[in-house]
């Protein structure tokens, strides 16, 4: 049987079917891609929710050594309280922020500082000692007490000073500047500008 006379009719009937098949295939592909995107988005949201649900409070030890005015040489030790996901690993690098305190005895006195700060650092194998600070800053309230028989750089008798201190750490180097006021009327100058250069946070 010769079908050549019927080819136009066959072609006319087959074209719509072919177009429909192509459209349905494209729609199925688009639905599949959309489903994969939704699945990936849901998995990401589940991971975020899981991390938020497992947040825990942590203490990280902080420390620094510095040379400055008026304590001269001093060494500080303290801790920062923060909240992190329970699976957070700071052995290589992590961001930490929160309230902290630091006790710092020095050559001509000592000080206690309490404040709020933020830093990016690493604990290495210590888990809880943030011994390497790549970048960080803090604002602290400070109480300083002088000691020493020769009265130190200020030339005052033993006194207590209070004030505020700014702290900046860049690749372990630590810079501080502060403004303190004496609680005693023995001194001739009530206000003291402090500053230091050191290592740590």
Specify Rg, calculated over alpha carbons. Answer: 33 Å
Number of domains: 2
Oligomerization: single chain
Helix fraction bin = 10-25%
In terms of structural class, how would the helical and strand content be classed?
Answer: alpha+beta
Task: Write down the overall geometry.
Answer: elongated
Provide the β-strand percentage band: over 45%
Separation, N- and C-terminal Cα atoms? 95 Å
- The unreliable regions are none
Average pLDDT metric? 83
**How many distinct helices?**
1
| Major beta-sheet overview | 8 strands, antiparallel, barrel
Largest sheet strand order? 1-2-3-4-5-6-7-8
User: What is the β-strand count?
Assistant: 8
Order of secondary-structure elements: HEEEEEEEE
Account of the protein in words:
- An 8-stranded antiparallel beta barrel has the order 1-2-3-4-5-6-7-8.
- The mean pLDDT is about 85.
- It is built from 1 helix and 8 strands; from the N terminus they run H-E-E-E-E-E-E-E-E.
- A hairpin with a 2-residue loop joins strand 1 and strand 2 (about 70-85).
- By secondary structure, it is α+β, with helices and mostly antiparallel strands.
- It has 2 domains: about 5-55; about 55-200.
- The protein has one helix at about 5-55; strands at about 55-70, 70-85, 95-105, 110-120, 130-145, 160-170, 175-180, 190-200.
SSE layout:
Layout: H1 7-53, E1 55-69, E2 72-85, E3 94-106, E4 109-122, E5 132-146, E6 160-170, E7 173-182, E8 191-200
Antiparallel strand pairs: 1-2, 1-8, 2-3, 3-4, 4-5, 5-6, 6-7, 7-8
Can you summarize this structure?
This protein is α+β, with helices and mostly antiparallel strands.
């Amino acid at each position: 049987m010769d079908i050549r006379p019927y080819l136009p009719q066959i072609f006319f009937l087959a074209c719509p079917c072919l177009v429909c098949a192509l459209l349905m295939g494209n729609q199925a592909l688009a639905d599949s891609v959309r489903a994969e995107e939704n699945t990936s988005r849901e998995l990401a949201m589940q991971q975020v929710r899981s991390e938020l649900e497992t947040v825990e409070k942590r203490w990280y030890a902080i420390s620094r050594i510095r040379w400055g005015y008026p304590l001269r040489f001093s060494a500080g030790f303290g801790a920062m309280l923060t909240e992190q996901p329970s699976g957070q690993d700071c052995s290589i690098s992590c961001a930490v922020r929160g309230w902290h305190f630091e006790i710092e005895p020095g050559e001509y006195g000592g000080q206690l500082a309490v404040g709020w700060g933020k830093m990016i650092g690493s604990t290495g194998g210590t888990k809880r000692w943030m011994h390497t600070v790549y970048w960080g800053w803090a604002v602290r309230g400070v109480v300083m007490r002088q000691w020493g028989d020769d009265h130190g750089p200020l030339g005052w008798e033993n006194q207590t000073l209070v004030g505020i201190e700014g702290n900046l750490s860049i690749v372990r180097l630590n810079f501080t500047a502060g403004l303190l006021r004496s609680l005693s009327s023995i001194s001739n100058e009530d206000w003291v500008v402090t500053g230091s250069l050191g290592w740590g946070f």
